Automatic annotation (TrEMBL):
<dbReference type="InterPro" id="IPR052712">
    <property type="entry name" value="Acid_resist_chaperone_HdeD"/>
</dbReference>
<dbReference type="InterPro" id="IPR005325">
    <property type="entry name" value="DUF308_memb"/>
</dbReference>
<dbReference type="Pfam" id="PF03729">
    <property type="entry name" value="DUF308"/>
</dbReference>
<keyword id="KW-0472">Membrane</keyword>
<dbReference type="GO" id="GO:0005886">
    <property type="term" value="C:plasma membrane"/>
</dbReference>
<feature type="transmembrane region" description="Helical">
    <location>
        <begin position="90"/>
        <end position="111"/>
    </location>
</feature>
<feature type="transmembrane region" description="Helical">
    <location>
        <begin position="66"/>
        <end position="84"/>
    </location>
</feature>
<feature type="transmembrane region" description="Helical">
    <location>
        <begin position="34"/>
        <end position="54"/>
    </location>
</feature>
<feature type="transmembrane region" description="Helical">
    <location>
        <begin position="146"/>
        <end position="167"/>
    </location>
</feature>
<keyword id="KW-1133">Transmembrane helix</keyword>
<feature type="transmembrane region" description="Helical">
    <location>
        <begin position="12"/>
        <end position="28"/>
    </location>
</feature>
<feature type="transmembrane region" description="Helical">
    <location>
        <begin position="123"/>
        <end position="140"/>
    </location>
</feature>
<protein>
    <submittedName>
        <fullName>Uncharacterized membrane protein HdeD, DUF308 family</fullName>
    </submittedName>
</protein>
<keyword id="KW-0812">Transmembrane</keyword>
């Protein structure tokens, strides 16, 4: 059990540090950060697509054609994103809203389960509710500017990083 808790401590610490670094980058240049995230997303999709195409052509898998079609799809999406990063950036606000809402729901479920095993910090509940609220806010984006939405994501990343580091510290103290 101690080994599991220690690995969770490392995982939560790593998530916290990465989230804090992302929030720092967003606050330094919000408009540039959104375009950069969109471009990296395109590059990632292109790389994944190429890898899938190569593995489909070299492999003898039953799903070879399916993997090849997925690889072509990912490659085309990646190229499209890289050519039109502005349109992708706007779409990414919606994706971020979906992701953060989903994350908030999972965190709320995790809080409720953790509460039965050991005393769960109220900060975890606040974090789950805040995640749901920010996710829904981004999803339905009543703000017209993507830069403002990016700043909200930066604030969320900052909050997420702090709470993950706090959770890692709590797990470490209980193990």
């Amino acid at each position: 059990m101690k080994q599991v808790l220690r690995s969770n401590t490392f995982s939560e610490t790593l998530k916290g540090i990465i989230a804090l670094l992302i929030s720092l980058l967003i606050f330094i240049d919000p408009a540039g950060a959104l375009m950069t995230i969109a471009t990296y997303f395109g590059i990632l999709a292109l790389i994944v697509g190429i890898i899938m195409i190569i593995s489909a052509t070299k492999g003898n898998s039953v799903n070879r054609n399916f993997i090849l079609i997925q690889g072509i799809f990912f490659s085309l999406i990646g190229l499209l994103i890289m050519v039109y990063p502005g349109a992708t950036a706007s779409f990414m606000v919606v994706l971020a809203g979906l992701f953060i809402t989903f994350l908030g729901a999972i965190q709320l479920a995790g809080y409720l389960q953790m509460k039965e095993i050991l005393p769960a910090p109220q900060l975890s509940l606040i974090h789950a509710i805040l995640s749901l609220a920010i996710g829904l806010l981004l999803l339905f984006n009543p703000f017209k500017g993507a830069v403002l939405a990016t700043l909200i994501m930066g604030g969320y990343a900052l909050w997420f990083g702090i709470t993950r580091l706090y959770l890692a510290w709590q797990i470490y103290n209980h193990s």
